[in-house]
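Good morning C.,

I know you're traveling, so I'll keep this short. The sequence:
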Amino acid sequence: MEGERKPSLNFIEQLIEGDLKSGKHKSIHTRFPPEPNGYLHIGHAKSIVLNFGLAEKYKGKCNLRFDDTNPEKEDTEYVDSIKRDIQWMGYDWEEREFYASDYFDTLYDYAIRLIKKGKAYVDDLSQEEFNAIKGTPTEPGKESPFRGRSVEENLQLLEEMKAGKYKNGEKVLRAKIDMSSPNMHMRDPILYRIKHTPHHRTGDAWCIYPTYDFAHGQSDSIENITHSLCTLEFEVHRPLYEWLIQELEIFPSKQTEFARLNLSYTVVSKRKLLELVQEKHVAGWDDPRMPTISGIRRRGFTPESIKNFIHKVGVARRDGITDVALLEHAVREDLNKKTNRFFGILNPLKVVITNWPEDKEEILTGVNNPEDESAGTREMKFGREIYIDRGDFLEDPPSPKKWYRLGPDREVRLKYAYIIKCTGYDKNDQGEVTTLYAEYDPETRSGQDTSGKKVKGTLGWVSAKYGIGAEIRLYDRLFQTENLNDIDDDFKNHLNPDSLAINREAILEEALKSAKVGDLVQFERVGYFRVDEDSTPGNLVFNRTITLRDNWAKSQGG
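The C-alpha coordinates, ready to paste straight into the viewer:
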Protein backbone atom coordinates (compact mmCIF):
# COMPACT_ATOMS: atom_id res chain seq x y z
CA MET A 1 0.00 0.00 0.00
CA GLU A 2 1.33 3.42 -0.94
CA GLY A 3 2.71 5.32 2.04
CA GLU A 4 2.86 2.21 4.22
CA ARG A 5 6.03 2.10 6.32
CA LYS A 6 8.27 -0.90 5.85
CA PRO A 7 9.51 -2.54 9.04
CA SER A 8 13.05 -1.48 9.88
CA LEU A 9 15.83 -4.00 9.33
CA ASN A 10 17.72 -5.44 12.28
CA PHE A 11 21.52 -5.32 12.20
CA ILE A 12 21.83 -8.87 10.84
CA GLU A 13 19.41 -8.13 8.00
CA GLN A 14 21.39 -4.99 7.23
CA LEU A 15 24.58 -7.06 7.12
CA ILE A 16 23.02 -9.64 4.81
CA GLU A 17 21.57 -7.06 2.45
CA GLY A 18 24.93 -5.32 2.32
CA ASP A 19 26.71 -8.60 1.49
CA LEU A 20 24.21 -9.43 -1.25
CA LYS A 21 24.30 -5.92 -2.73
CA SER A 22 28.11 -5.82 -2.78
CA GLY A 23 28.31 -9.21 -4.45
CA LYS A 24 30.21 -10.76 -1.54
CA HIS A 25 27.64 -13.56 -1.63
CA LYS A 26 25.23 -14.49 -4.42
CA SER A 27 22.89 -16.04 -1.86
CA ILE A 28 22.92 -16.64 1.88
CA HIS A 29 23.40 -19.93 3.66
CA THR A 30 22.69 -20.22 7.39
CA ARG A 31 22.55 -23.16 9.79
CA PHE A 32 20.92 -24.13 13.05
CA PRO A 33 23.55 -26.12 15.03
CA PRO A 34 22.08 -27.67 18.21
CA GLU A 35 24.03 -29.99 20.46
CA PRO A 36 21.96 -33.18 20.97
CA ASN A 37 22.41 -33.24 24.75
CA GLY A 38 18.91 -32.13 25.78
CA TYR A 39 15.60 -30.85 24.50
CA LEU A 40 15.35 -27.46 22.80
CA HIS A 41 13.92 -24.55 24.80
CA ILE A 42 12.35 -21.19 24.04
CA GLY A 43 15.80 -19.63 23.65
CA HIS A 44 16.59 -22.08 20.85
CA ALA A 45 13.29 -21.12 19.23
CA LYS A 46 14.73 -17.65 18.66
CA SER A 47 17.73 -19.13 16.86
CA ILE A 48 15.46 -21.41 14.81
CA VAL A 49 13.25 -18.51 13.73
CA LEU A 50 16.27 -16.32 12.99
CA ASN A 51 18.28 -18.84 10.95
CA PHE A 52 15.44 -20.48 9.04
CA GLY A 53 13.51 -17.22 8.78
CA LEU A 54 16.42 -15.31 7.22
CA ALA A 55 16.98 -18.12 4.74
CA GLU A 56 13.32 -17.92 3.74
CA LYS A 57 13.30 -14.13 3.52
CA TYR A 58 16.38 -13.91 1.32
CA LYS A 59 15.64 -17.09 -0.67
CA GLY A 60 18.70 -18.85 0.70
CA LYS A 61 19.22 -22.13 2.52
CA CYS A 62 19.41 -23.20 6.14
CA ASN A 63 21.09 -26.42 7.27
CA LEU A 64 20.26 -28.46 10.34
CA ARG A 65 23.60 -29.52 11.77
CA PHE A 66 23.98 -31.40 15.00
CA ASP A 67 27.08 -30.47 17.00
CA ASP A 68 27.64 -34.03 18.19
CA THR A 69 31.22 -33.81 19.47
CA ASN A 70 30.57 -34.74 23.11
CA PRO A 71 29.40 -38.39 23.16
CA GLU A 72 29.13 -38.58 26.96
CA LYS A 73 26.05 -36.35 27.00
CA GLU A 74 24.44 -36.99 23.63
CA ASP A 75 21.67 -39.35 22.60
CA THR A 76 19.47 -40.16 19.61
CA GLU A 77 16.46 -39.32 21.79
CA TYR A 78 17.60 -35.71 21.73
CA VAL A 79 18.27 -35.81 17.99
CA ASP A 80 14.72 -37.01 17.33
CA SER A 81 13.18 -34.46 19.68
CA ILE A 82 15.08 -31.60 18.03
CA LYS A 83 13.86 -32.60 14.59
CA ARG A 84 10.26 -32.83 15.84
CA ASP A 85 10.50 -29.37 17.38
CA ILE A 86 11.85 -27.71 14.24
CA GLN A 87 9.20 -29.34 12.06
CA TRP A 88 6.48 -28.30 14.52
CA MET A 89 7.77 -24.74 14.28
CA GLY A 90 7.03 -24.97 10.56
CA TYR A 91 10.53 -25.18 9.10
CA ASP A 92 12.08 -27.65 6.68
CA TRP A 93 15.81 -28.28 6.30
CA GLU A 94 14.98 -30.40 3.23
CA GLU A 95 17.88 -32.79 2.48
CA ARG A 96 20.36 -30.72 4.49
CA GLU A 97 20.58 -32.71 7.71
CA PHE A 98 24.22 -32.82 8.79
CA TYR A 99 26.28 -33.79 11.82
CA ALA A 100 29.68 -32.63 12.99
CA SER A 101 30.47 -36.36 13.15
CA ASP A 102 30.05 -36.43 9.36
CA TYR A 103 33.27 -34.42 9.25
CA PHE A 104 35.41 -36.31 11.78
CA ASP A 105 37.79 -37.54 9.07
CA THR A 106 38.08 -34.06 7.55
CA LEU A 107 38.60 -32.42 10.94
CA TYR A 108 41.34 -34.91 11.75
CA ASP A 109 43.02 -34.01 8.46
CA TYR A 110 42.72 -30.34 9.41
CA ALA A 111 44.48 -31.11 12.71
CA ILE A 112 47.32 -32.75 10.81
CA ARG A 113 47.52 -29.69 8.55
CA LEU A 114 47.90 -27.41 11.58
CA ILE A 115 50.63 -29.61 13.07
CA LYS A 116 52.55 -29.57 9.80
CA LYS A 117 52.33 -25.75 9.75
CA GLY A 118 53.70 -25.64 13.28
CA LYS A 119 50.35 -24.32 14.56
CA ALA A 120 49.34 -27.24 16.84
CA TYR A 121 51.03 -29.56 19.30
CA VAL A 122 50.26 -32.50 21.59
CA ASP A 123 50.34 -31.49 25.24
CA ASP A 124 50.81 -33.87 28.19
CA LEU A 125 49.75 -31.38 30.87
CA SER A 126 46.56 -32.17 32.72
CA GLN A 127 43.83 -29.53 32.70
CA GLU A 128 44.76 -28.53 36.24
CA GLU A 129 48.45 -28.23 35.36
CA PHE A 130 47.69 -26.13 32.28
CA ASN A 131 45.33 -23.86 34.22
CA ALA A 132 48.18 -23.19 36.66
CA ILE A 133 50.33 -21.71 33.88
CA LYS A 134 47.55 -20.21 31.76
CA GLY A 135 47.69 -16.85 33.50
CA THR A 136 44.82 -14.36 33.93
CA PRO A 137 43.19 -11.84 31.57
CA THR A 138 45.69 -9.24 32.87
CA GLU A 139 48.74 -11.50 33.27
CA PRO A 140 50.36 -13.51 30.46
CA GLY A 141 50.57 -17.27 30.74
CA LYS A 142 53.57 -19.52 30.46
CA GLU A 143 54.19 -21.91 27.62
CA SER A 144 53.72 -25.63 28.14
CA PRO A 145 57.04 -27.56 28.33
CA PHE A 146 55.66 -29.72 25.50
CA ARG A 147 54.97 -26.76 23.19
CA GLY A 148 58.31 -27.18 21.38
CA ARG A 149 57.75 -30.74 20.21
CA SER A 150 58.73 -31.40 16.61
CA VAL A 151 56.21 -31.77 13.83
CA GLU A 152 57.13 -35.44 13.48
CA GLU A 153 56.66 -36.17 17.19
CA ASN A 154 53.31 -34.36 17.27
CA LEU A 155 52.06 -36.28 14.23
CA GLN A 156 53.08 -39.59 15.81
CA LEU A 157 51.47 -38.73 19.16
CA LEU A 158 48.23 -37.61 17.51
CA GLU A 159 48.08 -40.87 15.58
CA GLU A 160 48.67 -42.80 18.81
CA MET A 161 45.90 -40.80 20.50
CA LYS A 162 43.56 -41.73 17.65
CA ALA A 163 44.63 -45.39 17.93
CA GLY A 164 43.58 -45.50 21.60
CA LYS A 165 47.03 -45.79 23.16
CA TYR A 166 46.33 -43.21 25.90
CA LYS A 167 43.80 -42.81 28.67
CA ASN A 168 41.24 -40.03 29.01
CA GLY A 169 42.95 -36.77 29.88
CA GLU A 170 46.43 -38.14 29.35
CA LYS A 171 47.08 -35.98 26.29
CA VAL A 172 45.34 -33.26 24.27
CA LEU A 173 46.01 -31.52 20.99
CA ARG A 174 46.34 -27.76 21.39
CA ALA A 175 46.49 -24.91 18.91
CA LYS A 176 49.76 -23.01 19.16
CA ILE A 177 48.68 -19.37 19.24
CA ASP A 178 49.62 -16.85 21.94
CA MET A 179 49.96 -17.49 25.68
CA SER A 180 50.00 -13.73 26.32
CA SER A 181 46.79 -12.92 24.42
CA PRO A 182 44.29 -10.84 26.44
CA ASN A 183 41.63 -13.23 25.06
CA MET A 184 41.95 -16.37 27.17
CA HIS A 185 40.42 -18.45 24.36
CA MET A 186 43.51 -17.71 22.25
CA ARG A 187 45.94 -19.11 24.83
CA ASP A 188 46.64 -22.44 23.17
CA PRO A 189 43.07 -23.80 23.24
CA ILE A 190 42.35 -27.53 23.07
CA LEU A 191 41.42 -28.85 19.63
CA TYR A 192 41.16 -32.59 20.43
CA ARG A 193 40.67 -34.52 23.65
CA ILE A 194 40.61 -38.23 24.43
CA LYS A 195 37.22 -39.74 25.31
CA HIS A 196 36.92 -43.52 25.36
CA THR A 197 33.15 -43.25 24.99
CA PRO A 198 31.02 -44.74 22.18
CA HIS A 199 29.39 -42.16 19.94
CA HIS A 200 25.68 -42.40 19.11
CA ARG A 201 26.49 -42.33 15.37
CA THR A 202 30.09 -43.47 14.94
CA GLY A 203 30.15 -46.10 17.68
CA ASP A 204 33.73 -47.02 18.71
CA ALA A 205 35.35 -45.71 15.54
CA TRP A 206 36.84 -42.74 17.40
CA CYS A 207 38.27 -42.24 20.86
CA ILE A 208 39.39 -38.65 20.27
CA TYR A 209 36.85 -35.93 19.61
CA PRO A 210 37.18 -32.34 18.42
CA THR A 211 36.17 -29.53 20.76
CA TYR A 212 33.29 -27.20 19.94
CA ASP A 213 35.69 -24.45 18.91
CA PHE A 214 37.51 -26.71 16.47
CA ALA A 215 34.41 -28.39 15.02
CA HIS A 216 32.06 -25.43 14.78
CA GLY A 217 33.80 -23.00 12.48
CA GLN A 218 35.26 -25.74 10.32
CA SER A 219 31.85 -27.38 9.91
CA ASP A 220 30.49 -23.97 8.88
CA SER A 221 33.26 -23.70 6.33
CA ILE A 222 32.78 -27.23 4.96
CA GLU A 223 29.10 -26.41 4.39
CA ASN A 224 29.88 -22.98 2.85
CA ILE A 225 27.86 -21.19 5.53
CA THR A 226 27.89 -17.48 4.70
CA HIS A 227 26.43 -16.19 7.96
CA SER A 228 27.15 -18.14 11.12
CA LEU A 229 24.81 -16.64 13.72
CA CYS A 230 25.64 -17.25 17.39
CA THR A 231 24.52 -15.83 20.71
CA LEU A 232 26.67 -13.26 22.48
CA GLU A 233 28.51 -15.66 24.77
CA PHE A 234 30.41 -16.84 21.67
CA GLU A 235 31.69 -13.35 20.84
CA VAL A 236 34.98 -14.05 22.65
CA HIS A 237 35.32 -17.24 20.60
CA ARG A 238 35.20 -15.34 17.29
CA PRO A 239 38.97 -14.55 17.11
CA LEU A 240 39.72 -18.28 17.40
CA TYR A 241 36.99 -19.05 14.82
CA GLU A 242 38.68 -16.67 12.39
CA TRP A 243 42.24 -17.79 13.25
CA LEU A 244 41.44 -21.41 12.47
CA ILE A 245 39.75 -20.59 9.15
CA GLN A 246 42.67 -18.39 8.17
CA GLU A 247 45.35 -20.91 9.13
CA LEU A 248 43.54 -23.75 7.38
CA GLU A 249 42.85 -21.57 4.32
CA ILE A 250 39.28 -22.79 3.95
CA PHE A 251 35.97 -21.14 3.03
CA PRO A 252 35.74 -17.93 5.10
CA SER A 253 32.51 -18.37 7.00
CA LYS A 254 31.69 -15.28 9.07
CA GLN A 255 30.43 -15.43 12.66
CA THR A 256 28.01 -12.76 13.89
CA GLU A 257 26.63 -12.61 17.43
CA PHE A 258 23.18 -11.57 18.67
CA ALA A 259 21.58 -11.34 22.11
CA ARG A 260 20.20 -14.58 23.48
CA LEU A 261 16.61 -14.78 24.67
CA ASN A 262 16.33 -14.51 28.45
CA LEU A 263 12.85 -14.59 29.98
CA SER A 264 11.68 -13.47 33.38
CA TYR A 265 10.56 -16.25 35.75
CA THR A 266 12.27 -18.73 33.41
CA VAL A 267 15.43 -20.84 33.28
CA VAL A 268 16.92 -21.30 29.80
CA SER A 269 19.87 -23.56 30.55
CA LYS A 270 19.86 -27.14 29.32
CA ARG A 271 22.00 -28.13 32.29
CA LYS A 272 19.49 -26.74 34.76
CA LEU A 273 16.52 -28.11 32.84
CA LEU A 274 18.15 -31.55 32.86
CA GLU A 275 18.56 -31.20 36.61
CA LEU A 276 14.84 -30.50 37.00
CA VAL A 277 14.04 -33.61 34.97
CA GLN A 278 16.53 -35.92 36.69
CA GLU A 279 15.51 -34.82 40.18
CA LYS A 280 11.82 -35.17 39.24
CA HIS A 281 10.82 -31.59 40.02
CA VAL A 282 8.86 -31.89 36.75
CA ALA A 283 7.30 -34.85 34.95
CA GLY A 284 9.80 -34.80 32.08
CA TRP A 285 11.25 -32.65 29.31
CA ASP A 286 7.74 -32.11 27.92
CA ASP A 287 6.16 -31.14 31.23
CA PRO A 288 3.89 -28.20 30.31
CA ARG A 289 5.61 -26.03 32.93
CA MET A 290 8.97 -26.43 31.20
CA PRO A 291 10.21 -23.74 28.77
CA THR A 292 11.21 -26.50 26.33
CA ILE A 293 9.57 -26.38 22.92
CA SER A 294 8.06 -29.80 23.62
CA GLY A 295 6.75 -28.52 26.96
CA ILE A 296 5.12 -25.37 25.61
CA ARG A 297 3.72 -27.36 22.68
CA ARG A 298 2.07 -29.77 25.13
CA ARG A 299 0.80 -26.85 27.15
CA GLY A 300 -0.92 -25.40 24.10
CA PHE A 301 1.35 -22.65 22.78
CA THR A 302 1.24 -22.44 18.98
CA PRO A 303 4.11 -22.05 16.48
CA GLU A 304 2.52 -18.82 15.27
CA SER A 305 2.42 -17.33 18.76
CA ILE A 306 6.08 -18.17 19.36
CA LYS A 307 7.14 -16.67 16.04
CA ASN A 308 5.11 -13.52 16.69
CA PHE A 309 6.68 -13.22 20.13
CA ILE A 310 10.20 -13.59 18.76
CA HIS A 311 9.53 -10.99 16.07
CA LYS A 312 8.26 -8.60 18.76
CA VAL A 313 11.36 -9.15 20.87
CA GLY A 314 13.55 -8.45 17.86
CA VAL A 315 17.27 -9.03 17.32
CA ALA A 316 19.56 -7.00 19.54
CA ARG A 317 23.29 -6.71 20.18
CA ARG A 318 23.01 -6.62 23.97
CA ASP A 319 21.63 -9.18 26.39
CA GLY A 320 18.63 -8.34 28.51
CA ILE A 321 15.61 -9.96 30.12
CA THR A 322 12.30 -10.07 28.28
CA ASP A 323 9.12 -10.01 30.34
CA VAL A 324 7.46 -13.43 30.05
CA ALA A 325 4.16 -11.52 29.97
CA LEU A 326 4.99 -10.56 26.37
CA LEU A 327 5.16 -14.24 25.43
CA GLU A 328 1.88 -14.88 27.24
CA HIS A 329 0.34 -11.94 25.40
CA ALA A 330 1.43 -13.37 22.04
CA VAL A 331 -0.14 -16.72 22.96
CA ARG A 332 -3.45 -15.10 23.98
CA GLU A 333 -3.47 -12.93 20.87
CA ASP A 334 -3.13 -15.98 18.65
CA LEU A 335 -5.49 -18.28 20.53
CA ASN A 336 -8.16 -15.60 20.73
CA LYS A 337 -8.40 -15.69 16.94
CA LYS A 338 -8.44 -19.43 16.42
CA THR A 339 -10.00 -21.20 19.41
CA ASN A 340 -13.66 -22.10 19.77
CA ARG A 341 -15.42 -21.07 22.98
CA PHE A 342 -17.13 -23.46 25.36
CA PHE A 343 -18.43 -23.33 28.89
CA GLY A 344 -16.24 -25.08 31.40
CA ILE A 345 -17.34 -24.86 35.02
CA LEU A 346 -14.30 -25.55 37.20
CA ASN A 347 -15.99 -25.09 40.57
CA PRO A 348 -19.58 -26.17 39.94
CA LEU A 349 -22.63 -25.13 41.96
CA LYS A 350 -25.97 -26.70 41.02
CA VAL A 351 -28.92 -24.47 40.11
CA VAL A 352 -32.48 -25.83 40.00
CA ILE A 353 -34.87 -23.72 37.89
CA THR A 354 -38.07 -24.38 39.80
CA ASN A 355 -40.55 -23.06 37.22
CA TRP A 356 -39.01 -25.10 34.40
CA PRO A 357 -40.92 -28.36 33.72
CA GLU A 358 -38.91 -31.40 34.80
CA ASP A 359 -39.23 -33.23 31.49
CA LYS A 360 -38.70 -30.19 29.25
CA GLU A 361 -35.50 -29.63 27.22
CA GLU A 362 -34.64 -26.92 24.73
CA ILE A 363 -31.90 -26.76 22.11
CA LEU A 364 -30.11 -23.43 22.26
CA THR A 365 -27.43 -22.05 19.95
CA GLY A 366 -23.96 -20.99 21.01
CA VAL A 367 -21.46 -19.01 18.94
CA ASN A 368 -18.21 -20.94 18.58
CA ASN A 369 -15.89 -17.99 18.02
CA PRO A 370 -17.00 -14.37 17.78
CA GLU A 371 -13.59 -13.58 16.20
CA ASP A 372 -14.22 -16.04 13.35
CA GLU A 373 -17.63 -16.27 11.71
CA SER A 374 -16.55 -19.35 9.75
CA ALA A 375 -16.31 -21.28 13.04
CA GLY A 376 -20.11 -21.48 13.06
CA THR A 377 -22.37 -22.39 15.98
CA ARG A 378 -23.13 -25.35 18.20
CA GLU A 379 -26.20 -26.83 19.88
CA MET A 380 -26.54 -26.65 23.65
CA LYS A 381 -29.17 -28.59 25.62
CA PHE A 382 -30.91 -26.60 28.34
CA GLY A 383 -33.07 -28.04 31.10
CA ARG A 384 -34.28 -27.71 34.68
CA GLU A 385 -30.90 -28.33 36.36
CA ILE A 386 -27.66 -26.62 35.41
CA TYR A 387 -24.29 -25.80 36.94
CA ILE A 388 -22.76 -22.36 37.30
CA ASP A 389 -19.42 -21.49 38.84
CA ARG A 390 -19.45 -21.18 42.61
CA GLY A 391 -17.63 -17.87 42.31
CA ASP A 392 -20.66 -16.40 40.49
CA PHE A 393 -22.83 -16.49 43.63
CA LEU A 394 -22.63 -14.61 46.92
CA GLU A 395 -25.04 -15.02 49.83
CA ASP A 396 -24.52 -11.41 50.84
CA PRO A 397 -23.40 -9.58 47.72
CA PRO A 398 -22.42 -5.89 47.65
CA SER A 399 -24.59 -3.31 45.91
CA PRO A 400 -25.81 -4.10 42.39
CA LYS A 401 -23.38 -1.50 41.07
CA LYS A 402 -20.45 -3.53 42.41
CA TRP A 403 -21.73 -7.09 41.92
CA TYR A 404 -23.29 -8.07 38.61
CA ARG A 405 -23.50 -11.77 39.29
CA LEU A 406 -25.96 -13.89 41.24
CA GLY A 407 -27.23 -13.40 44.78
CA PRO A 408 -30.55 -13.73 46.64
CA ASP A 409 -33.27 -11.98 44.60
CA ARG A 410 -30.69 -10.95 42.00
CA GLU A 411 -31.16 -11.48 38.26
CA VAL A 412 -28.57 -12.48 35.67
CA ARG A 413 -28.62 -13.74 32.13
CA LEU A 414 -27.45 -17.24 31.36
CA LYS A 415 -25.49 -16.78 28.15
CA TYR A 416 -27.39 -18.00 25.06
CA ALA A 417 -30.34 -18.86 27.35
CA TYR A 418 -32.64 -16.96 29.73
CA ILE A 419 -32.64 -14.44 32.54
CA ILE A 420 -32.98 -16.16 35.89
CA LYS A 421 -33.63 -14.84 39.40
CA CYS A 422 -32.27 -16.53 42.52
CA THR A 423 -35.13 -17.43 44.88
CA GLY A 424 -33.32 -19.47 47.51
CA TYR A 425 -30.53 -21.89 48.36
CA ASP A 426 -29.61 -24.90 50.48
CA LYS A 427 -26.57 -25.21 52.76
CA ASN A 428 -24.87 -28.20 54.33
CA ASP A 429 -23.83 -28.64 57.97
CA GLN A 430 -20.56 -26.82 57.29
CA GLY A 431 -22.43 -23.76 56.09
CA GLU A 432 -21.50 -24.29 52.45
CA VAL A 433 -24.07 -23.47 49.80
CA THR A 434 -24.90 -26.72 47.97
CA THR A 435 -27.82 -25.84 45.67
CA LEU A 436 -29.37 -22.67 44.32
CA TYR A 437 -33.01 -22.29 43.38
CA ALA A 438 -34.07 -19.89 40.66
CA GLU A 439 -36.93 -18.96 38.35
CA TYR A 440 -36.51 -18.15 34.69
CA ASP A 441 -38.39 -15.57 32.64
CA PRO A 442 -39.73 -17.31 29.51
CA GLU A 443 -39.86 -13.97 27.66
CA THR A 444 -36.09 -13.55 27.83
CA ARG A 445 -34.75 -16.31 25.59
CA SER A 446 -31.52 -15.16 24.00
CA GLY A 447 -32.10 -13.72 20.54
CA GLN A 448 -35.89 -13.64 21.12
CA ASP A 449 -36.11 -11.43 24.21
CA THR A 450 -39.40 -9.51 24.32
CA SER A 451 -39.32 -8.62 28.02
CA GLY A 452 -37.45 -5.34 27.86
CA LYS A 453 -35.43 -6.37 30.93
CA LYS A 454 -31.88 -5.15 31.26
CA VAL A 455 -29.35 -7.03 33.39
CA LYS A 456 -25.64 -6.43 33.51
CA GLY A 457 -24.52 -9.86 34.60
CA THR A 458 -24.08 -12.76 32.15
CA LEU A 459 -23.01 -16.18 33.40
CA GLY A 460 -21.73 -19.35 31.81
CA TRP A 461 -23.52 -22.59 32.56
CA VAL A 462 -23.50 -26.31 31.80
CA SER A 463 -26.42 -28.74 31.70
CA ALA A 464 -26.40 -30.96 34.79
CA LYS A 465 -27.82 -33.84 32.74
CA TYR A 466 -25.48 -33.63 29.75
CA GLY A 467 -22.34 -32.05 31.15
CA ILE A 468 -19.18 -34.15 31.19
CA GLY A 469 -16.45 -34.53 33.77
CA ALA A 470 -12.78 -33.99 33.04
CA GLU A 471 -9.42 -33.61 34.72
CA ILE A 472 -8.19 -30.04 34.51
CA ARG A 473 -4.50 -29.37 35.08
CA LEU A 474 -4.02 -25.78 36.09
CA TYR A 475 -0.45 -24.86 35.23
CA ASP A 476 1.25 -21.71 36.44
CA ARG A 477 4.79 -20.36 36.15
CA LEU A 478 7.41 -22.85 37.28
CA PHE A 479 9.44 -20.24 39.17
CA GLN A 480 8.33 -17.44 41.48
CA THR A 481 11.43 -15.24 41.15
CA GLU A 482 11.53 -12.75 38.29
CA ASN A 483 15.25 -12.58 37.53
CA LEU A 484 16.86 -15.97 38.01
CA ASN A 485 20.18 -14.68 36.63
CA ASP A 486 20.80 -12.56 39.73
CA ILE A 487 20.25 -15.17 42.45
CA ASP A 488 23.12 -16.40 44.65
CA ASP A 489 21.56 -19.63 45.89
CA ASP A 490 20.34 -22.83 44.22
CA PHE A 491 17.87 -21.95 41.48
CA LYS A 492 15.62 -24.79 42.63
CA ASN A 493 14.94 -22.86 45.84
CA HIS A 494 12.87 -20.52 43.67
CA LEU A 495 10.49 -23.14 42.30
CA ASN A 496 6.82 -22.22 42.57
CA PRO A 497 5.12 -24.80 44.85
CA ASP A 498 1.78 -23.91 43.25
CA SER A 499 2.88 -24.36 39.63
CA LEU A 500 0.38 -27.21 39.19
CA ALA A 501 -3.07 -27.75 40.67
CA ILE A 502 -5.30 -30.62 39.51
CA ASN A 503 -9.07 -30.14 39.35
CA ARG A 504 -11.27 -33.22 39.03
CA GLU A 505 -14.55 -31.50 39.91
CA ALA A 506 -15.01 -29.59 36.66
CA ILE A 507 -18.13 -29.97 34.51
CA LEU A 508 -17.78 -29.18 30.80
CA GLU A 509 -20.17 -28.73 27.91
CA GLU A 510 -21.39 -31.88 26.21
CA ALA A 511 -19.91 -30.65 22.91
CA LEU A 512 -16.41 -31.28 24.31
CA LYS A 513 -17.09 -35.01 24.55
CA SER A 514 -15.65 -35.39 21.05
CA ALA A 515 -12.51 -33.34 21.77
CA LYS A 516 -9.27 -34.92 20.56
CA VAL A 517 -5.69 -34.77 21.82
CA GLY A 518 -4.14 -31.49 20.71
CA ASP A 519 -7.43 -29.59 20.41
CA LEU A 520 -7.25 -26.02 21.71
CA VAL A 521 -10.30 -24.39 23.25
CA GLN A 522 -11.30 -21.44 25.37
CA PHE A 523 -13.39 -21.98 28.48
CA GLU A 524 -15.30 -18.72 28.57
CA ARG A 525 -14.20 -16.37 31.35
CA VAL A 526 -11.64 -18.97 32.49
CA GLY A 527 -8.78 -19.37 30.02
CA TYR A 528 -7.34 -21.34 27.13
CA PHE A 529 -6.89 -25.10 27.35
CA ARG A 530 -5.40 -27.97 25.36
CA VAL A 531 -6.47 -31.62 25.37
CA ASP A 532 -3.49 -33.54 26.76
CA GLU A 533 -1.90 -36.78 25.58
CA ASP A 534 -2.85 -38.41 28.89
CA SER A 535 -6.51 -38.35 27.82
CA THR A 536 -8.26 -41.68 27.37
CA PRO A 537 -11.75 -42.52 26.04
CA GLY A 538 -14.22 -41.21 28.58
CA ASN A 539 -11.52 -39.47 30.63
CA LEU A 540 -10.44 -36.19 29.05
CA VAL A 541 -7.47 -34.29 30.47
CA PHE A 542 -7.13 -30.57 29.73
CA ASN A 543 -4.01 -28.50 30.31
CA ARG A 544 -4.51 -24.84 31.06
CA THR A 545 -2.45 -23.12 28.40
CA ILE A 546 -2.92 -19.66 29.83
CA THR A 547 -5.46 -17.54 31.68
CA LEU A 548 -7.53 -14.83 30.00
CA ARG A 549 -5.99 -12.00 31.97
CA ASP A 550 -3.35 -10.19 29.92
CA ASN A 551 -0.94 -8.21 32.08
CA TRP A 552 1.22 -7.23 29.13
CA ALA A 553 -1.65 -5.70 27.14
CA LYS A 554 -2.83 -3.81 30.22
CA SER A 555 0.66 -2.47 30.89
CA GLN A 556 0.78 -1.22 27.29
CA GLY A 557 -2.58 0.49 27.60
CA GLY A 558 -4.44 -2.31 25.79
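Safe travels,
E.
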